[in-house]
Write a structure and sequence with these properties.
- This protein has a 4-stranded mixed β-sheet with strand order 3-2-1-4, with helices on both faces.
- The chain has helices at 2-9, 16-24, 32-49, 51-68, 76-113, 119-122, 131-138, 141-168, 180-221, 225-236, 239-260, 298-309, 318-327, 339-355, and strands spanning 266-269, 274-279, 290-296, 314-316.
- The two termini are 74 Å apart.
- The radius of gyration is 43 Å and the shape is elongated.
- The chain folds into 2 domains: 26-222, no CATH class; 243-355, secretion proteins EscU (name from scop, 3-Layer(aba) Sandwich), CATH 3.40.1690.
- Strand 1 (266-269) and strand 2 form a beta hairpin.
- Helix content is 68%, strand content 6%.
- The longest helix has 42 residues, at 180-221.
- By secondary structure, the protein is mostly helical.
């Protein structure tokens, strides 16, 4: 009952990650019927293409054996010789056909599932040899569908075979007056017709089976809304964890800024809402003033507190403080359009130093 309820709750299409995980396990939509019919036609094509070579090779081997049969002695050497000859003939016959079948198998599998290497599918799974699970799989919906499909194919193949034979049955008595090659050719033609018609039927069945396998595969991969949410959290990260990481990063950034405030030349304030720590070394005249730290509210108060502790001048300039907060980043030089205002601030700082005025004025 719980399994039925769970299956009913799976209303969401599989996510790309779910599909990729299924591929890694070798769980893909593939029709064995389509594979079989493609290999059937590939075999027919291979035999038709190499038919003359097959007959010629067998004919040559047979004539060789019967011609030398009178003088041939059964020895290890003669057995090895004729065994090697037979293997050569077999390779000549079977080699091209096997190659055609191999190419056809690779193509039809690639068309259905693409190129995959499922490592997880190669690992042994002991549940596959479990008798209890084996019996459960035997009576599963998938196996019942396969059984019904197999029975239907048997009846359809039998019907087509009988239909082709019935069409030619009146001609069979003429074979009694035909030569052996003629009889073989005639029967081969009937067999070719029968196989072709069966193959065409199996193509239809194979395409329909592939469509069903695709549907059944996608249905099996469907997810519940909760599974989609959980996967989204795992894939994109838990929002709470991401928030904590962001807070930690911001805290580390603030700590780095506060650590360099003692090196500042002056702190420009709003006066209470914003504080900007600026450094300028008059010895290095080629360097522009640099923003060491900036902050609002509590951060501004901490910057001013450190400035007072280190006897750094604190000067109020609301437009400059707001402009630097908006357009200057910690660690970077101030923009050119603030040079004039900064020059006035620095001049005031140097005047304060010469007159020994207390530095914290804001």
């Amino acid at each position: 009952m719980a399994e039925q309820q769970s299956a009913q709750d799976k209303t969401e299409q599989a996510t790309p990650k779910r599909q990729e995980d299924a591929k890694e396990k070798g769980n893909v939509a593939k029709s064995q019927d389509l594979n079989s019919v493609v290999l059937l036609f590939a075999g027919i094509f291979g035999i038709s293409y190499t038919g003359n070579e097959i007959i010629g090779a067998f004919k040559g081997l047979t004539m060789n054996v019967y011609t030398n049969a009178v003088h041939m002695q059964i020895t290890n050497d003669s057995v090895a010789f004729y065994g090697a000859e037979f293997l050569k003939v077999f390779a000549t016959i079977a080699g091209p056909i096997f190659m055609i079948l191999l190419i056809a198998a690779l193509v039809v599998n690639y068309v259905q599932v693409g190129f995959i290497f499922a490592k997880k599918a190669l690992s042994p799974k002991f549940e596959k040899i479990s008798p209890a699970k084996g019996i459960k799989r035997l009576f599963s919906t998938t196996k019942l569908v396969e059984l019904a499909k197999g029975i239907a194919k048997i009846f359809l193949v039998a019907y087509i075979s009988l239909y082709v034979i019935r069409d030619h049955i009146d001609e069979f008595w003429l074979l009694a007056f035909d030569s052996v090659p003629g009889t073989m050719g005639y029967l081969g033609g009937i067999l070719f017709e029968m196989t072709t018609k069966i193959g065409m039927l199996l193509v239809v069945i194979g395409v329909a089976d592939f469509a069903y396998q695709k549907y059944d595969h996608n249905k099996g991969l469907k997810m519940t809304k909760q599974e989609v949410k959980e996967e989204s959290k795992q894939y994109e990260g838990n929002p709470q964890v991401k928030g904590k990481i962001k807070q930690a990063q911001m805290a580390a950034s603030r700590a780095r800024m506060l650590a360099v405030v003692p090196d500042a030349t002056v702190v420009v304030t709003n006066p209470t809402f914003i504080a900007i720590a600026i450094k300028y070394d008059p010895v290095l005249k080629t360097d522009a003033p640099k923003v060491l730290a900036k902050g609002k509210r509590k951060m501004a108060q901490k910057i001013k507190q450190i400035a007072r502790q280190n006897n750094i001048p604190i000067i109020e300039n609301k437009p400059l403080a707001r402009g630097l907060y908006d357009y200057a980043m910690p660690g970077s030089e101030i923009p050119v359009f603030f040079y004039e205002a900064i020059a006035e601030i620095l001049a005031e700082v140097y005047k304060m130093k010469k007159s020994n005025v207390p530095r914290a004025v804001a």
